[in-house]
Design brief:
188 residues, alpha/beta, 7-stranded mixed β-sheet, 6 helices, globular
């Protein structure tokens, strides 16, 4: 049912899925560029159309009754911010507990222009020993898809060069809101 819904949303809105979902069972999915709330609608439709169960992180208080079951059904995974364990370790534990797990993260962290991407996606993948998969929405072409899985090597600059090259041709709905693809850690 969800696959039909996703395909219908893409068809009605004129979008096309141009590459298949990755065959690996666990990965961190980058959701970029992220310049509008519509990105969520289209990325969710892409996930549904691809037969993916996409998860996302949310503050643990979102998962209390009465909305907790709904948030979990929509793929939400609670993050407890006040615990001594950091978010990276909490998500790595989620990867360890599951046979398959796709965790979508918009590394810009905002729909506004950001001068740096947040590095959590990178450190979660490295700690959990899973690949990063770049997912994209290209608004001028109304095309969506996925890049090849990339296992973080620890050489942040080299790994980010791969992501910069991958995302170079794709344009968000509001191009001026898509900042540079870089992490603060690259600057030493």
């Amino acid at each position: 049912m969800r696959a039909l819904l996703g395909k219908s949303i893409l068809a009605v809105s004129g979008w096309k899925l141009v590459s298949p979902r990755p065959s690996v069972p666990k990965y961190v999915l980058i959701a970029a560029p992220h310049t509008t709330n519509w990105d969520l609608v289209y990325m969710q439709a892409v996930g549904y159309a691809s037969g993916m169960d996409v998860s996302w992180m949310g503050k643990h208080t979102l998962f209390k009754p009465p909305f907790g079951p709904i948030m979990r059904a929509l793929g939400g995974v609670p993050v407890v911010r006040h615990e001594r364990r950091n978010m990276v370790d909490q998500m790595a534990d989620e990867f360890a507990k599951r046979e398959s797990f796709v965790l979508a993260i918009p590394p810009e962290g905002t729909r506004k222009r950001a001068e740096y991407w947040r590095s959590g996606f990178y450190h979660i993948a490295r700690t959990a020993n899973v690949p990063v998969v770049p997912g994209y929405l290209d608004y001028p072409n109304k095309a969506a898809g996925f890049g090849p899985p990339m296992y973080p090597t620890g050489n942040i600059r080299a790994d980010m060069d791969i992501l910069r090259a991958f995302y170079a041709p794709f344009v968000g709905k509001y191009p001026d809101k898509f900042g540079p693809i870089r992490l603060k850690e690259e600057e030493g």
